[in-house]
Specification:
Length: about 625
């Protein structure tokens, strides 16, 4: 079991310059047909009625689709209450439609989901479908919050009092959330709406029993009972009911769709998700707590979660705050090879989508090495529901693999993405997890996070792939992150982490992360190290300014920059300033880095620290 938790989500190339110049969403501009405007109130969809508007709104969306011409559905300001069945993915479903814009007049146009088990909008097999200038909330909420009354560490329980105005744990959506990933909680600061400094950032819950009208005795799962040591009477606690059905907005097998200027105050799972889609744009989205409330949480999972996308997303001008997981995650869900028939034929499970013409990377998770990089000539589904994959060229490395072999589909991992001008603040885990190649990450601000800022690399244990390469990371600011117990104490914990992993969290043999540029970065009070580079090649770092404030104690003894199993690394114009004795050196180079300039070139390095601090520790 990992010490950190991220949502397991499975739902059963233009150039970077082109991506950065795309203008999202005008249905009429995609065709020669005029744009039809449909006013929701003319179709029986009324705000503030407290009636279930889902049937009428669904009928309106179906009507817009049936028109066959580009259409904009306009919602007046006010609250639209949407119910739905307990088995529904979302209150509203748009399926196999194209050229539709759903538009409110700002945050005052609010979709209120009254079933805490489902999302608001599910877009399936759509093209050029957009949601614009409205907000999404839940009532009742898909979580509850309150205070810790007493902690019994010996017997493995704590008593929890639900705060007035929040759902009671006797509500059925808590007990029916899937285990373990739907029933867990987080310890919060007793004064500020943020995670408790230095505490475990999640606790899986086994069961709970009511002890008084508004209080429950909660038992963590056995192996996590030790996390009760982080609790104190008076701490605040959030208890999730994460049902994992899509998100507030979800795109499935859709193309050239997106959102603009929407606000998400709550979600039973992701704020926005996408599986098997192609170029989703997220522009000006705000995932934030209701400012007129005392809520501790926004979404129950990630801000943006992109799995198996063909072209990656454009995510820009957004704010991510208060989520129970990562800000952004872009990846492919790997297949596992079940047998190697020959050098040109393999069989594999069907966890991820593979089609003819896709480019595949075969990765042996132990010791962590790339066995082959080739394309699919032909693929078919066998009677026992496996893929039989014929490769374009022979891959003799496959027959040499002795361990488990994963398939990373480079054609469906969200490559060619843009993450620009966003703010990530005060949420549970990392700002962004990047497993895809060919991306631009620029002009972002990441502050007060529970986890790290930028994590670029594969994860065989979870599992998620592929392996990132050809990334430009520039003009980003990172400050006061790694608040939770394990992120800074880990020996590789760093504000920016570039690494190729093998299984069990080991460093890979292959230097798979490559062709990375990190420029003009400001890092204040990193979680131990500012930068970690491991199992990587061809990394250029320039213009990095790192500062450790004297009053902030780092979570471990470390160097400001760590390198191991790396080659072709160039660093220049590096400024590191610290008065903390925990920072033992400016740059630490392990003996697994290639010798001489082939491993590392340093130019214009400025390091200011306490007496006895080493500028560079080179163990080669």
């Amino acid at each position: 079991m990992h010490s950190t938790l991220s949502i397991p989500f499975v739902f059963t190339l233009t150039t970077l310059i082109l991506a950065s110049q795309e203008t999202p969403g005008n249905p009429a501009s995609r065709t020669n047909h005029p744009l039809t405007t449909l006013l929701a109130r003319d179709h029986g969809v009324y705000p503030d009625s407290h009636e279930d508007m889902a049937p009428a709104m669904q009928a309106l969306l179906d009507h817009a689709q049936a028109l066959g011409d580009p259409a904009v559905v306009v919602l007046d300001p006010g609250e639209y209450f949407l119910d739905g069945g307990n088995d529904a993915q979302a209150a509203l479903v748009v399926q196999q439609a194209r050229d539709i814009l759903i538009r409110g007049v700002g945050e005052d146009t609010r979709l209120v989901i009254r079933n805490p088990r489902m999302g608001a909008l599910f877009i399936a097999e759509g093209e050029n479908i957009w949601i614009e200038t409205l907000s999404i909330d839940h009532d009742p909420l898909p979580y509850t919050q309150g205070h810790i009354l007493v902690v019994n560490r010996e017997k493995g329980w704590f008593d929890f009092a639900v705060q007035a105005g929040y759902p009671l744990l006797s509500e059925p959506w808590f007990a029916t959330a899937p285990k373990p990933y739907g029933q867990w909680g987080m310890i919060f600061d007793r004064a500020e709406p943020r995670l408790k400094q230095g505490a475990a950032d999640f606790i899986f819950l086994d069961r709970w029993e009511q002890v008084s009208r508004g209080a429950w005795r909660i038992y963590p799962v056995g192996e996590q009972a030790e996390r009760l040591k982080d609790m104190r009477m008076g701490d605040r606690f959030v208890h999730l009911a994460r049902h994992g059905r899509g998100g507030a907005v979800f795109f499935w097998r859709s193309r050239d769709c997106g959102v603009r200027g929407i606000t998400i105050h709550a979600s039973q799972s992701l704020a926005l998700g996408s599986v098997s889609s192609d170029r989703i744009t997220v522009d000006g989205m705000r995932v934030v707590r209701r400012q007129d409330s005392d809520r501790l949480l926004s979404a129950n999972a990630d801000g943006v979660h992109m799995q198996q996308n063909i072209r990656g997303p454009v995510i820009q001008n957004c704010t991510f705050e208060g989520m129970a997981d990562d800000g952004i995650n872009i990846y492919y869900y790997p297949n596992t090879v079940s047998s190697v028939v020959s050098e040109t034929v393999v069989r594999a499970d069907r966890k991820g989508i593979i089609e003819a013409g896709d480019r595949l990377l075969f990765f042996e998770s132990s010791p962590g090495r790339v066995l082959a990089d080739t394309t699919v000539r032909e693929i078919r589904i066998t009677p026992d529901n496996e893929y039989r994959i014929a490769l374009e060229t022979p891959a003799p490395g496959l027959t040499e693999g002795a361990g488990s072999i994963s398939i990373y589909n480079l054609s469906r991992c969200g490559a060619d993405f843009v993450i620009r001008n966003n703010v990530f603040q005060n949420h549970r885990r990392h700002a962004m997890m990047i497993k895809a190649p060919h991306g631009l990450i620029e002009d972002n601000v990441m502050v007060e996070l529970g986890g790290l800022a930028i994590v670029a690399g594969n994860d065989p244990d979870w599992p998620e792939g592929a392996i990132p390469s050809d990334l430009l990371i520039r003009n980003n600011r990172i400050e006061n992150i790694g608040r939770s117990r394990w992120y800074g104490t880990d020996s590789r914990g760093a504000a920016i982490q570039l690494l190729t992993k093998a299984d069990r969290g080991m460093l890979a043999q292959t230097r798979g992360v490559k062709e990375i540029t990190v420029e003009n970065t400001t890092i204040v009070n990193p979680p131990g190290a500012a930068l970690y580079i491991g199992a990587a090649h061809d990394v250029f770092v320039t213009g990095m300014n790192v500062r450790y404030e004297t009053e902030k104690e780092p979570p471990r003894r470390t160097a400001a920059i760590l390198l191991e199993n790396a080659s072709g690394v160039v660093m220049e114009h590096i400024y590191i300033e610290t008065g903390r004795p925990e920072v033992e050196s400016g740059i630490l180079v392990r003996n697994s880095v290639d010798e001489g300039d082939a491993g590392l070139i340093l130019r214009d390095i400025h390091i200011t620290g306490p007496p006895g601090m080493a500028t560079v520790q080179d163990h080669r």
